Amino acid sequence: MNNISEVKLGIVAVSRDCFPIQLSESRRKAVVAACVGKGIEIVEIQTIVENEKDVLRALQELHSAGVNALVVYLGNFGPEGPETMLAQKFGGPAMFAAAAEESENNLIDGRGDAYCGMLNASYNLGLRKLNPYIPEYPVGTPDEIADMILDFKDIARVILGLSKLKIFGFGPRPQDFLACNAPIKPLFDIGVEIMENSELDLFESFNLHANDPRIPLVVKDMEEELGGGNKLPGILPKLAQYEITLLDWMEKYIGASEFAVFANKCWPAFQTQFGFVPCYVNSRLASRGIPVSCEVDIYGALSEYIIACATGIPATLLDINNTVPKDMYENNRDKFGDYKLTDLFMGFHCGNTPNCYLKDGTLKYQLIMHRLLEPDKEPDITRGTLEGTIKPGDITIFRLQGTADCRLRSYVAQGQVIDVDPKSFGGIGVFAVKEMGRFYRHVLIGKRFPHHTAVAFKHAGKVLFAAMKMLGVEDVSFNQPVHMLYKDENPFK
């Protein structure tokens, strides 16, 4: 995917001048060796920071090497002023970690006290109003530090991506979809740009792409992707025209940003004017790391993009849609394991999920829109969904949301798609999340989250939670275990 940032890591060791500088140097080399052993590319900065002059030298090395994500490594106690100044002047995502002591036989000249130094570093980070990534236990052996750096790489990709992101919006939310309406001010708080446009702007651009010479090539690519699922070939030229329209808009108006996502109004006027539903195109662009959210869900598109950055693989946006019938649960008990019925729900949307995550992805028509717009007729303007059962496997549901009072809140929960036939339409699957019933009531309902959730097709909770904290999102909810009550949960069962 070329719509997400490439992370180039660099590590700078720091040393307090009353501790042996060789200790920081040797420990840094050991961390770099551990990174190499795990396939983690990292630039080893030779300057060891003891004072402010060293900060300037290290910064020059970092910038010359093109480093955009910084690991500040306390090989010993460290100089809290210069080491935090380094992160401040670097300006990009930074991580702080500290060396564990190596042996009981070397605790005089070989003792670094980095465990203590991290406390002073944290205090000085607060003075400078910095919010770097600090692992849950930020002290470790070289091998353990390398694992922390691997997590940081994914977190940094989120931070870097958002700093260069533009959201293109087309149209207002559909009638009675106020849940998708959210203030844009919090976007600027995290460095995201937005360009809001009308449906007419999109319609004009689409019409200007009529007979575009690239359409046959895109149709051919669609045919190859769909294979036997190409049940409505007649709609492909219009879908191809629309795909080219969006990509050209992105290229023309990206401006000072590097990456982009879309939040588009997709019904009901879209069908009557464009003559199709855009779901399959949304699916194809999501496959390239360019989310296109339904119903002008700006924060849905943003959430989907954050997932793509965090995981390096495509994501999707689904409705937290319907309950799993009790008889479906009882008839498939062997597949649900220890999940309760209230742990289950169906994740659904019309047809925007990348084909790679569907069993037998098939081009169809949108049933709900067909009922509304062309009942008792052969589907025409409602064609264009990509439908199929979502493949079983690990998932993470996630959303970052701007509230009515212009604050940011988020949630993240891990679970699975279960290999059970949902026996319904659309891009749909049976989802399982531990204690989903309580999470649904006290987070999704209790904190007024909209119905859309972004879905990662792997467990990514650790990275997403940490990324939200780095962004300064104070309210990050998760599916609390049964022994941990939510703040507003009634303890009297």
Walk me through what this model shows.
By secondary structure, this protein is of the alpha/beta class. It has two domains: about 10-160, 3-Layer(aba) Sandwich (Rossmann fold); about 165-480, no CATH class. About 40% of the residues lie in helices and about 20% in strands. It has helices at about 20-35, 50-65, 80-90, 115-125, 140-165, 185-190, 200-210, 215-225, 235-255, 270-275, 280-285, 300-310, 325-330, 335, 365-375, 435-445, 460-470, and strands at about 10-15, 40-45, 70-75, 95-100, 140, 165-170, 195, 260-265, 290-295, 315-320, 345-350, 360-365, 385-390, 395-400, 410-420, 425-430, 450-455, 475-480. A six-stranded antiparallel barrel has the order 10-11-16-15-14-17, surrounded by four helices. The chain has a five-stranded parallel β-sheet with strand order 2-1-3-4-5, sandwiched between helices. α5 (about 140-165) crosses α17 (about 460-470). About 50% of the residues are buried. The model has no long low-confidence stretch (mean pLDDT about 95).
